[in-house]
Write a structure and sequence with these properties.
This protein has 74 residues and is mostly helical. Helices cover 96% and strands 0% of the residues. The longest helix has 60 residues, at 2-61. The radius of gyration is 31 Å and the shape is rod-shaped. The chain crosses the membrane at residues 6-24.
Length: 74
Amino acid sequence: MDNDLAIIALVFIIVVGTTASEMFKYYMKHKQQADMGSVSDLQAQNQALIERVQVLEKLVTDSDFDLKQQFKQL
């Protein structure tokens, strides 16, 4: 009788463990896909900001900009 109970418990533990493991793998796979989408969005946003900063740097370092600033100060 004790052997039967031990076998049933062992089978139950194996089934529950395997199911939990597969659920965890599924969760991690979908979480990683969601994170990759988020990373792509952030990279695109970062590139847009880099381009804006480059344009602003061009404007500020332009010699005409300095001249306009000097006229404004007068």
